[in-house]
Write a structure and sequence with these properties.
- There is one protein chain.
- This protein has 83 residues and is an alpha+beta fold.
- It has one domain.
- Helix content is 42%, strand content 13%.
- It has a three-stranded antiparallel β-sheet.
- Helix 1 crosses helix 3 and helix 3 packs antiparallel against helix 4.
- It starts with a strand and ends in a 6-residue tail after the last helix.
Length: 83
Amino acid sequence: MHTNTFSTRGEAIASITDAIEAGGAVTDAADEYDLDAIADELVTLHSEETPDGATIASSVHFSIDADEDTFWATVEAHELTAS
């Protein structure tokens, strides 16, 4: 997976969902994987600050910066098991 930039964390999670479901083997990633846990590991918040340390709201964005192996290993690590 290449570095992708998103306006919101939700958009980044949607991208993760799309990637998981793209092969067709999984039709509902949310039923089979802990998407929040995957995002916690893969999605990074970026922003710029003023000299006073305040976050510049217009600079806030999220990214996923993981190679294919890291991405799929993280997805696999957060597969939900049926109880």
